[in-house]
Amino acid sequence: MLVHLRRAITLSLLSMLVVGFLYAAAGTGVAQALFPFQANGSLTANGSTLIGQNWSSSRWFHGRPDATGPYATNAATGVVGGDNPLVANGVHGQTGATNLGPRSRVLLADTRALVRYWHRRGVSP
After folding, report:
1. Keywords, A to Z (predicted)?
2. Distance, CA of 28 to CA of 71 (rounded, Å)
3. Pair (87, 29) in one structural domain
């Protein structure tokens, strides 16, 4: 029985070493050798090129609808205007969900405003 216990512990430690350390180190080494800019996070002076996009033009695909326009700080500072109809109408958006329910008249009005906004730009489902 002691032989089986020793084999099980040895195999567990060996598996942890191979999968937990050697495989991860090999993957990191290959990534650093072949793609050093991407492997280090694609860092720029203002952050990372992989995180977020500038939605400053209506010709770009918008990842998800929100009422903040191209800058998330619009919600905090109360900036009115911009290309988004909700921001242009003085509705300062949130950077997340509004938590409005499916029967909310505000949500319905905001959604209709966004649909008209995109239809005027030639976007239709």
Report:
1. ATP-binding, Cell membrane, Ion transport, Membrane, Nucleotide-binding, Potassium, Potassium transport, Transmembrane, Transmembrane helix, Transport
2. 34
3. no
If asked whether residues 101 and 120 sit together in one domain, one would say yes
Exposed/middle/buried for residue 87 (C-beta within 10 Å: 0-12, 13-18, 19+): buried
Cα distance between residue 23 and residue 117, in whole Å = 50
Over residues 53-89, the pLDDT tens digits come to 665 666 666 555 555 555 555 444 444 445 666 655 5
Taking the complete model, does pTM exceed 0.70, yes or no? Answer: no
Report the domain count for the chain. 2
Please tell me the distance from the alpha carbon of residue 120 to that of residue 101, in angstroms, as a whole number: 27
The answer to whether the beta carbons of residues 74 and 68 sit under 8 Å apart is yes
The residues near 91 (Cβ < 8 Å, ≥ 6 apart) are 67, 110
